[in-house]
Design a protein that fits this description.
372 residues, alpha/beta, Rossmann fold, 2 domains, 7-stranded parallel sheet, 6-stranded parallel sheet, 13 strands, 15% strand
Amino acid sequence: MLPRRLIFHVPTLGGGGAERVFVLMANALAARGHEVTLFTWNAGGPNAALRSDAVHLVDLDIPVTGGGFGKPRTLAGLWRSAQFYRRQQPDAVFSGPEFANLVTALALTLGLTPAKFFPSFHAAASIPSKDLGSKLAARLAALVATRATTLIAVSAGIGRDLLARGVPEGKVAVIHNPLPPGIHDGATRRYPWHAELAALGQGPVIVTAGRLTAVKDHRTLLAAFAQLRATRPARLVLFGDGPLRSELVAEAERLGIAGSTLFAGYVNDPAACYAVADLFALSSVSEGFGNVLIEAMAAGVPVVSTDAPHGPREILEDGALGPLVPVGDAAALAAAMAKTLDDPTPAAALKARGADFEIDVIADRYEALLEF
């Protein structure tokens, strides 16, 4: 394939899964000889460290306040983005998540830029109803879909969501998220949290990873762990940070599990996190995909998950590779964790499934979109 001029746009390089995916895919396509630019409105954040030197970085350096840009800065960013695309005249633009998709569709239109446009969708959504929010979401999705060449859904479930919103079937491609390089390498460094984990005592280590927000439903995980701890020794490590940290720490105290629970914060070294795990547990209410599940499986760590829409069921092959329990059901999650600790899924089967998400496999799918 002839080299293409590509732009990957993500608003920030914070610690989210979509941001990590875009840096990894920019790196992968740059390694294949394409001219790749990573375009951000604010390049601050832990995923900035993952960018390859082969990927050019453009940062508008727009301040982030309270987790967002605010209306005046968003309008300024939109106008500057339109100017940027018009100057660069790329062959193709990838964007994500949903906020960035809308901004990119508008900026390409304002800038009269004829680039192919591949917006990616990372979050599950319900089928639209007649309420105002659903109508607005449908209108915005329609606007993006009109300008898009192909919409990328990171799971088949999100693909179905897009179709339910009126996107033509031929414009949707399901392309899963990739594994980060080195996930199979195990722990290569020691961190302060290793000593904190050792101080929790004995017992198998149950790990979870993700922002401490309501959608991840760590309260149910803590309740499930408290039930498990009533029957056997175990330790729980939560990797990630977020606005609910203090509330969750207090909840662990209330449940009497603070002495066996570690809030390790955000750790930008997934291999080190999975290397200490005997079991990975995901308690989310909603997951567009579930990057952490494929990472744990690639590292050979058994997993249990809520049957959150949409990624977990797809990744775990309808529960064949790890139990799926109802969302918000602490008792079911505790039972699944106990069962999996006693009878773990073979590591070979987990790693074989993880291989489906190797970065070269996913890069092939992205590159195939460029055959125009």
